What does this fold into?
Amino acid sequence: MKKFFTFGLVPILSVVIFSCGSSPKDVYVSGSYNDTTSGKEIACYWKNGAKVDVGAMTEDSEAYGIFVSGTDVYVAGRVYASPDTADN
It folds into this structure.
């Protein structure tokens, strides 16, 4: 009897990227945090430990991945729209 294993990955903090070509190296990490004031989950990334919020922060959101090209930062993720604000 063969056994099959399925591995599920749940990203807590996403991709770590070290920028190339400059010294010292920059470290980027994508993720999200819970804003205690609004109660929303906010997508963000950290550059060398400094948090940078992504988006308008009016809806729950998560960041799953990050790509850096020069000075441009691209974040992949999801925004959870409230039913009363979603288009039908």
The first strand starts at residue 16 and ends at 18. Residues 1-20 have pLDDT under 50 and may be disordered.
